[in-house]
């Protein structure tokens, strides 16, 4: 599998190894569902040393494609010195854990991911329990029922052993990656509490993980230990990166883009409009997050909530709740909890 120049293929998710900058290669790896199609792993190499940003999902197919791609740049899985992981979701973290057991590679993860990692490693905890609790608060019992039919409701899960602790908890600041290459580690909570992005200011690159994606808006606060106001965290993180010098964006899902600033501007405008839309649903009589989510369109196709699968219904209802809670914190809405369900109203 020989490297190709970035942009030589119109489908960003096609397997391969694509040179995006000097010594930087994008490697799309498959995911076991159709929603995101692939996750980008980035190899940073200098001919002697090799570091990967993110690792992919622990799947046999992903491992083989990663091995094939590394072979194309003269390396093997055992040559990876360390994995720098943007956040604790399984499509970014779990393959690093599995490969470390075999080859001894180092794994580094943002320090504020520790509570979620420990919760994920608990074999007696249902993986979606935090989301079930939030759905119940959102009036989303129908979605809870659909999730139970899809995933079951037993507390034990079979992947608890994939959440071993990293070798290093990353803190914000400058960090040596290769002998002649440094990244700035920037804490960007919102998608998860401990999400980080990596900035190579010398090369003008920003490895954005799931913080900034070119074609979709990242889910907010999907993690086993929820934040109080994840949307507030996310918007603050967007503004933080917007205040930095513009860089070329290397996202975890989707093609490389020339400007992270332009995409952040679009995301900020999207959420401004979404906040207005959510408030309008409450003004029109929606009482709960589930009610509001059921009244609006989702995805670029404007799909109804009932037309989506249970997992994406869950994300939609929880994102609605995040918007309504932010509006409440800003005193633009009021909220009252009745029998464990949050009911919103205008002020």
Summarize the structure.
The protein is α/β, with parallel strands linked by helices and 347 residues long. Helix content is 34%, strand content 22%.
How is this structure best described in words?
This protein is α/β, with parallel strands linked by helices and 347 residues long. It has two domains: 4-121 and 163-258, Metallo-beta-lactamase, Chain A (4-Layer Sandwich); 128-153 and 276-347, no CATH class. Helix content is 34%, strand content 22%. The protein contains nine helices and 15 strands. An eight-stranded mixed sheet has the order 1-2-3-4-5-6-7-8, covered by helices on one side. Strands 9-10-11-12-13 form a five-stranded mixed sheet, with no helix packed on it. A two-stranded antiparallel sheet has the order 14-15. β9 (173-178) and β10 form a beta hairpin. The radius of gyration is 20 Å and the shape is globular. The chain starts with a strand and ends with a strand.
Percent helix among the residues? 25-40%
CATH class annotation of the largest domain:
Alpha Beta
Query: How many strands?
Result: 15
CATH architecture assignment of the largest domain: 4-Layer Sandwich
Sheet of most strands = 8 strands, mixed
With strands numbered from the N-terminus, the spatial order across the biggest sheet is 1-2-3-4-5-6-7-8
**Cα Rg:** 20 Å
| Overall mean pLDDT | 94
Instruction: State the low-pLDDT regions, or none.
Output: none
Per DSSP, the total helix count is 9
Shape: globular
- What's the domain count? 2
For the termini, the CA-CA separation is: 60 Å
């Amino acid at each position: 599998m020989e490297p190709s120049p970035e942009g030589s293929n119109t489908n960003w998710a096609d397997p391969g190894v694509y040179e995006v900058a000097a010594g930087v290669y994008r490697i799309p790896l498959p995911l076991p569902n159709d929603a995101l199609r692939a996750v980008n792993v980035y190899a940073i190499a200098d001919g002697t040393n090799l570091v990967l940003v993110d690792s992919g999902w622990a799947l046999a197919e992903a491992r083989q494609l990663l091995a094939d791609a590394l072979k194309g740049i003269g390396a093997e899985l055992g040559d990876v010195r360390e994995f720098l992981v943007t956040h604790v979701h399984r499509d970014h973290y779990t393959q690093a854990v599995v490969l470390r057991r075999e080859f001894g590679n180092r794994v580094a993860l943002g320090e504020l991911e520790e509570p979620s990692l420990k919760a994920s490693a608990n074999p007696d905890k249902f993986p979606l329990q935090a989301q079930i609790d939030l759905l119940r608060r959102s009036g989303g019992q129908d979605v809870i029922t659909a999730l139970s039919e899809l995933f079951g409701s037993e507390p034990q899960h079979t992947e608890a052993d994939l959440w071993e602790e990293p070798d290093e908890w990353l803190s914000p600041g400058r960090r040596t990656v290769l002998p002649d290459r440094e990244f700035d580690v920037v804490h960007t909570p919102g998608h998860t509490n401990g999400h980080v992005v990596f900035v190579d200011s010398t090369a003008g690159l920003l490895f954005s993980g799931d913080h900034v994606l070119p074609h979709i808006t990242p889910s907010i606060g999907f993690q086993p230990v929820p934040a109080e106001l994840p949307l507030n965290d996310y918007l603050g993180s967007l503004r933080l990166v917007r205040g930095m010098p513009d860089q070329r964006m290397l996202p975890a899902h989707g093609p490389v883009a020339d400007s992270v600033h332009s995409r952040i501007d679009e995301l900020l405008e999207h959420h401004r409009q979404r906040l207005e839309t959510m408030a309008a649903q409450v003004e029109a009589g929606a009482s709960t997050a589930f009610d509001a989510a059921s009244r609006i369109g989702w995805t670029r196709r404007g799909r109804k909530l009932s037309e989506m699968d249970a997992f994406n219904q869950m994300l939609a209802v929880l994102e609605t709740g995040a918007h309504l809670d932010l509006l409440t914190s800003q005193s633009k809405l009021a909220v009252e909890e009745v029998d464990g369900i949050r009911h919103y109203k205008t002020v």
